[in-house]
Amino acid sequence: MNPHILFVDDEPNLIDGLRRMLRSFRQRWDMAFATSGSEALEIMAQRPFDVIVSDMRMPGMDGRQLLEEVEKRYPQTVRVVLSGSVGATEALGSLRPTHQYLSKPCDADTVQNTIERALRLRELLPQEKVGRLLSQTGSVPSLPSLYVRIMEELNSPDCEIGKVAEIIACDAGMTAKILQLANSAFFGLRGPVSTPSDAIFRLGLDVVKALVLSVQVFSAFESEHVKRLKLNRVWPHSLSTASLAQKIAVKQKAAPEIVDLTFTAGLLHDVGKLILASNVPDEYHQVLTRSGAAKINDWQGEYIAFGVTHAEVGAYLIGLWGLSDTLVDAIAHHHRPERSSGRKFGPLSAVHFADALEHHRRIEGGRYAARDLDLDYLAGAGLGSLAAEPEALVAELGGTKE
Amino acid sequence: MIRETTEPAGPREAARDVPQQGFERILEAIPEPVVVVGEQGRVCFANAAARGLLSCGGKLLDRPLGFGPPREVTEVCFREADGEARVRQMRAAETQWRGERAWVATLHDVTGPNRTAENLRRSEARQRALLESSLDCVVVMDAQERIFDFNSAAERTFGYSRGEVLGRPMAALLFTAAVRDSFHASLKRCLEGRLARLFDHRVEVTAVRKGGAEFPIEMAVSVARYDGEPIFTAVLHEITQRTQAHQKLLQQTRHLEHAVAALERVRERERQVLASIPSIFIGLDDQAKVTHWNPAAEKQFGLPAERVIGKLLGDLAIGWPADRINEATTRCSRLNEAIRLDEIRVTDSEGRERVVTLTVNRTETRGNEDGGVVLVGTDITARKAMEAQLMLAQKMESIGQLAAGIAHEINTPTQYVSDNTRFLRDAFQDFKQVLDRFELLRAEARQGAVAPATLDQLDTFLADIDLAFLTSETPKAIDQSLEGLNRVAEIVSAMKQFSHPDQDEPELTDLNKAIENTATVARNEWKYVAEVALDLDPELPAVPCLAGRFNQVILNLIVNAAHAIGDLVGDGSQAKGSIRITTRKTGGHVEIRVTDTGPGIPAKIRNRIFDPFFTTKQVGKGTGQGLAIAHNIIVEQHGGTIDLESEEGKGATFILRLPLTGNERPPENKP
What we know:
The complex is a heterodimer of chains A (402) and B (671). By secondary structure, chain A is mainly alpha-helical. Chain A contains 23 helices and 5 strands. In chain A, helix 2 (37-46) packs parallel to helix 3, helix 15 crosses helix 16 and helix 18 (310-320) packs antiparallel against helix 19 (325-332). The radius of gyration of chain A is 21 Å and the shape is globular. Chain B is of the alpha+beta class. In chain B, 45% of the residues lie in helices and 24% in strands. In chain B, strands 2-1-5-4-3 form a 5-stranded antiparallel beta sheet. A 5-stranded antiparallel beta sheet of chain B has the order 7-6-10-9-8. A 5-stranded antiparallel beta sheet of chain B has the order 12-11-15-14-13. Chain A binds chain B through residues 11, 13-14, 16-18, 20-21, 23-24, 37, 57-62, 65, 82, 84-87, 89, 103-108, and chain B through 403-404, 407-420, 422-423, 426-427, 469, 473, 476-477, 480, 483-484, 524, 527-529, 572, 576, 620.
């Protein structure tokens, strides 16, 4: 069955133009067109849509109202904005219910790539799972203490962009969101950014303030959830993994942009745990309890319960938010790198290695368990000798102190 | 100079002039009185007989005799040493006396004894009448201060009768003890031959009336000798009233001094005030001469006060439009009306051009028709600069807002023009394939046999490419692309028209066109909430106008209208509103009405909407300058009016009226 795509714009000429331009996809996509928000909702009520591409400024119901409604009614539908606005206020206002932001004029290839990429993500996460596990994807909640710190810093009259970057770089949820915004078509005209600090300097303090304080792109976990789901272990693990993975990448003489991506991949690799913890906290609690009792890894427990693991869930959202395929790949396959199509050294290799080392050091008292490392993959990626002496590597990189 | 006649001339003269001595001796021996009188009627010599006649202490000598230069025979009358007044016949002959021209005269008694007594009695009666007629008190006393005459004025003043006082000592009776002593001392000094102050001029003393009442009196005392005995005549004048008047005068003087001091303080205060005010203060008298010139004026014009005070204002070397100033001061003092000169350009002492507002007022002068005028000036250069900046800032704000809207307006057609173009490219590929197959078909047909397979393939291909869609969509794609390109061109052109460069002088402007352009560039501001209906009078005459400024006003009104309507329909629950713009010619004006269907403007804020910084919009939606600037542009810069009609809940109408003749306000009010 062909995927269903809905285009919404109040300008009939624009709809006609899209229809003509996308005519060549008529064999692959099942497309519908609407000239108002209410018409779009009527069409969606008749059949499910995989992707909705909507204008922002429309008379009556505007794009943001439409997408918020779509998020509520059809969470599995990927929401893309195609807007001609250049005002930051408007753009920021539309960011919350939006997975991806495209600016008019937008060439056909970009429209096509964005839609196809969104559709490909469903290979990671079957559509029916999205509605269940990812009903709320406007933000990934933060650790309450970090959330308080970032709010305090941004509200402070002496707010420093460096401090803001430092705090955000400690938190997977904030980092993911900031990277989404900085790489969106609205801000991302100067090429992709891959680290939280680059993203913040790209956006500028004023935009970050507006995003966090007015648009409220950040949120915090309830402290009860943090405790019950042992979420407080996720942050130090993510940071240590990011740091270790980055050092491995440096040691492997990776290109600077790969080193940056590696750090970010390490920071975000467990973001799926946070998504599950915030979207289905009770089920996730059961999963963790059962995994603990069965002495299996959490992700294995997740797979048994949900049919997917936090790796795919996290990668799906990161992909949906328009972050690079490299990141999506590294996050999606960090437990089972052999599933990736790539074999060369990259963020996936480093994160897979660092995650396993970090995890065992932390959870199992520093003992290395060979079963969690894909030695064949690592050897293929040029990490074979390091993988043979993981303890020595940790000692050499001195890396996982908190 | 006194010289006793009896004394011979000094030894030097005597030795030199022996015949003179002989002559004198001869004259001395003549029993008839003989005198020698000098040029001014002064007695130079009197023989023994004459001395007997004239012996009032020798004082007659060297003094005029009381008759003019002697003629040959004349009659003279005088009181002689025995106290009797006699008429004597004087025969005079010119001679030389000690080398000077003189007359020698004999005084022959022609008065009989009876006549002498009668004369004396008459003389005394005259003297008495004279004494009595005097309004002043006259008291005569001898060297022992004993009173021997006391006139009736003295009786009235002192309360004593003449009989009571005759023979009694004057000072003891009529003066207080203190006066008495100094009176004695003065008399004594006088008798000793030393001059006393008392007798030189009038003195004020305290006198005592009968009964003891003291009172102020002014006294002059003269001395005369009678048979060698001095007699004193005191003339006294009661000055009680005069003293009271004097006291009053003194008091008035003191008051006056206080008043003068107070006035000085006021002047000082005025000076300080004038020095401290930052405004220029120039005072002119009725001759237009400068009377005041405060430090602010000194600073502004670089002229110190001392160089301008007293000069004619018109003569001062000030870099300002002197004609206008002079005309204003003249008009002000003639018509007694305050005159305001709004923007005077003044070149200051450092050669910089400043903008000053001057008011010319007549000064209040009671009972004086020809008052001066004061000029009070304020340097508004900074304010003008700020106003200009504010206007520019507001324009930039509008343009910034517009830019976002225009980008949006352009992005949309760009999107579909590019989509259509891409479609046309793809469509052309399909058409080309159709043509290729057509060529194939034609070639086959030319050879006489079209293979059925070729036709089948063509049918499949045509179905595949949906030729019907292509043929129906291609012209539409071209039309819509052209439409989109026109749209972009229209916006760009309207923007170009809208951002008309700021001009200083009004130009005849087609307001309809200006309104159309502005509505076009602002399209993105209103199109989501309202329809704009333009009802423009095709016969509208061109109006002298600063087009860029006018556009700014229309833009502000459209944006305000759109925001107002947006507040009502923004949530999408209601149908779009409407903004209606009409133009009409009414009398000497062009009237522009901008009507919206927004919530209207509450009555209580209607009088504030043109105030700078007054805004009801949320932060970030506007600076609150829009209407204030619209007001400034229409009223100040175009001499027009801007009014509001609004009914709460039903919308608002802004009514602009621009004079067809341009701004007719006085030149000082032009921008």
